[in-house]
Design brief:
This protein is an alpha+beta fold. It is built from 4 helices and 7 strands, in the order βααβββαβαββ.
Length: 174
C-alpha cells in the first residue's frame, strides 16, 4: 500500500467531494480545524472550491487514487510577511493514521514552502493534541499558547498552541 503525495493546482468535483468528506470525518473524530461537528458537506465543498483557486500550496496524499490526507501552505498576506507561510488543515483519514502520512505531507509542505522562497513556517494546533508531538518531532518550536482560544463541540474552552519553524536552504542557511 503505497502513498502518493501530489500538488493539486485544480480540483475536480470528485476531489472536492472526497476532501469535503475527509474534512467532515476528521472533525467528527475530534480534530480542531476551526469547525465544529457535524460539518455540513455543502459548507465543506465551498471551502475546498475556494482553496482550489487560491495562491497557496495544496498537497494531497493518495492511496490507490483515493485521497487519504491533505495539507496546505498559505502564503503570508502582508507586504512585510511574504517570507513566511502558514501550515493549514493537516488532515489524515482516521483509518490511515500512524502510518507516516502526516509526516510526509509536512515534509513535502516544507519543501514546497522552501521552493517558494519561504524562510519561516507557522502553524497552530489545539494544545495537547497528538499533532503537537508530530510538529515538535519535525523541528517546530512552540512559541506559546493562548488559553480559551477555541471551544470544543461541547462548548468547553481550549488552549491553542502556536508553533514556528525557520526553514534552512540546502546549505543550512536561512
Amino acid at each position: 500500500m503505497s502513498v502518493t503525495i501530489r500538488r493539486a493546482t485544480a480540483l475536480t468535483d470528485a476531489e472536492i467531494e472526497a476532501l469535503a468528506e475527509l474534512l467532515a470525518e476528521v472533525v467528527a473524530e475530534g480534530a480542531s480545524l476551526g469547525l465544529l461537528p457535524p460539518v455540513e458537506l455543502a459548507m465543506a465543498r465551498d471551502y475546498w472550491r475556494r482553496i482550489a483557486v487560491g495562491d497557496g500550496v495544496l498537497l494531497l496524499a493518495e492511496i490507490d487514487e483515493a485521497i487519504v490526507g491533505t495539507v496546505q501552505v498559505q502564503h503570508g498576506e502582508s507586504e512585510n510577511g511574504r517570507h513566511r507561510g502558514e501550515i493549514c488543515k493537516l488532515l489524515v483519514h482516521p483509518g490511515c493514521r500512524r502510518r507516516g502520512i502526516g509526516r510526509v505531507l509536512m515534509e513535502r509542505a516544507e519543501g514546497a514552502a522552501r521552493a517558494a522562497g519561504k524562510t519561516l513556517l507557522v502553524l497552530d494546533a489545539r494544545e495537547g493534541d497528538p499533532s503537537n508531538d508530530l510538529y515538535r518531532s519535525l523541528g517546530y518550536l512552540k512559541a506559546g499558547a493562548i488559553p480559551d482560544w477555541s471551544r470544543d463541540a461541547d462548548g468547553a474552552p481550549r488552549a491553542t498552541a502556536f508553533f514556528y519553524k525557520p526553514l534552512m536552504d540546502d546549505a543550512g542557511t536561512r
